[in-house]
Write a structure and sequence with these properties.
Blueprint lengths: L21 H19 L6 H13 L13 H10 L11 H29 L2 H25 L3 H16 L8 H4 L9 H7 L7 E4 L3 E4 H12 L2 H5 L2 H29 L3 H18 L20
Antiparallel strand pairs: 1-2
Helix pairs in contact: 1-11, 2-12, 4-11, 5-6, 5-11, 8-9
Length: 305
């Protein structure tokens, strides 16, 4: 008689759960914002320069047209742009810079503009302003250090008072009671410190993802990063995460001005370069006008090497 062999019990091996753990998801989110931070660092300096550039062009002298001919505003705009003399700012790397600007424009169009639109859609303007004040309050530690470097003791006192008031009464900087009490803030950075010491700006350069800058301000940004609280309190990934969030807030604030400059410019590269330098000069001398006489060659143009 045939007796079948009893079948062995098959042990069921649990399948591996698809997906990522919460810790892995968090790391991926931080990595994403790190990339955003790198892209957004230099997207803000256009707003002030755009208004200054418009005012300077409106004050420029224009030759009168021949008698009997009606002036055409459209052709006047072309004349103003093409009859301006060569740039007063050093730009020996223009061919390379133009190529880099094209690369950055592609990244802006397909990556950063959608992210900025989603951010502005999710958070109303009042919330975005509070987020911006929070980052400005933390970044004021850099202003304080550079006020001390520049021996601007009154400015250092004002920055300290604002930092204390807004951190405590202003709930970590989400609000700005110091401004309501008449204590207005300012911004100082190490690039400004070098400029006041007489250091030349160096060549104009457009960095990959970072945008327009020059040698002096590039060095200044690196030094300022060493004075930021996140450098001492957070790890490398967290620092980039913080920078990404701060950069996203800054870009959302000025994206309309940047797009307006791009749409209204015949040569976007030249307009962006002019806007960058005009804005930078305004930032350097905004609260240091009394220091102009200290520099033998101080003027409104950037000095070459």
């Amino acid at each position: 008689m045939y007796f079948p062999t009893p079948m062995k019990r098959i042990r069921r091996i649990p399948s591996r759960r698809l997906g990522r753990s919460p810790r892995e998801s968090c790391l991926w989110v931080r990595l994403f914002f790190c990339i955003v931070g790198i892209v957004l660092v230099c997207s803000a300096p256009v707003q002030a320069a755009k208004s200054e550039g418009a005012s300077s062009q409106s004050e420029a002298a224009v030759d009168l047209p021949p008698v009997g001919l009606e002036p055409d505003p459209l052709f006047d705009e072309f004349d103003l742009e093409f009859e301006m003399g060569p740039s007063s700012f050093p730009d020996p790397l223009e061919p390379m810079n133009r190529g880099m600007l094209g690369f950055n424009s592609v990244v802006d169009r397909f990556v950063m503009d959608p992210i900025t639109s989603v951010y502005r859609f999710i958070f109303p303007e009042a919330v975005r302003r509070s987020i911006g004040r929070f980052f400005e309050n933390i970044n004021s530690t850099q202003t304080l250090i550079n006020d001390i470097f520049q021996l601007e003791w009154e400015g250092a006192g004002i920055t300290t008072a604002r930092l204390v008031i807004n951190t405590t009464v202003g709930v970590g900087g989400l609000f700005d009671p110091a401004k309501a009490w008449g204590i207005k803030g300012h911004v100082s950075d190490f690039g400004q410190t070098l400029a006041l010491a007489g250091a030349p700006s160096g060549p104009y350069v457009i960095l990959p993802l970072l945008g327009p800058s020059n040698v002096r301000d590039g060095i200044g940004q690196g030094v300022d990063a060493l004075f930021h609280p996140t450098f001492f309190l957070l790890g490398g990934t967290d620092v980039l995460f913080f920078s990404g969030s701060s950069g996203l807030t800054e870009r959302a604030r000025h994206v309309d001005e940047l797009n307006a400059l791009k749409e209204s410019s015949i040569d976007y590269y030249a307009a962006l370069r002019s806007a960058f330098y005009q804005n930078r000069q305004a930032e350097i001398w905004a609260n240091r006008e009394h220091r102009r006489s200290d520099l033998p060659s101080a003027n409104n143009t950037a000095r070459a090497w």
